[in-house]
Amino acid sequence: QGQLLESGGGSVQAGGSLRLSCQASEYTSRSKCMGWFRQAPGKEREGVARIYTISGTTGGTTYYADSVKGRFTISQDNAKNTLYLQMNSLKPEDTAMYYCARATNPFCTRSMQSQLYADWGQGTQVTVSS
Questions:
Q1: Are 20 and 94 within 8 A, CB to CB?
Q2: Are the CB atoms for 93 and 35 separated by under 8 Å?
Q3: How far apart are CA 95 and CA 90, in angstroms?
Q4: How many CB atoms are located within 10 Å of the residue 15 CB?
Q5: 62 strand-pairing partners
Q6: pLDDT digit string (tens) for 42-87?
Q7: How far is CA 31 from CA 25, 53, 61, 75, 122, in A?
């Protein structure tokens, strides 16, 4: 299992932007899902976005939770083994610990159940004030 390290979190006022990065320590198979999750205090962990690329296919297939669709963009740089989450028009309800994760279960293309993701980073805190 490769290690994942998130960065880019911080405090920002509502309407601001942040870009989160997730650096993988080893080469990542293009057939695996990479995802971003978040968890606010007292709330369940929720899937934010995922990207899936299959070998021999260009680009990636993305998914976004309804709460972030149109504001967040997930992307990856395979050459750098890095996953990104661009967050625009941030809202106070976006405040949470954000985690990047890597799935080994092929069902990750259909679901963002946390149990499908075997590798997790330590998280980076995002705080949005009103």
A1: no
A2: no
A3: 9
A4: 11
A5: 51
A6: 999 999 999 987 666 667 899 999 999 999 999 998 788 899 999 9
A7: 17, 5, 11, 15, 23
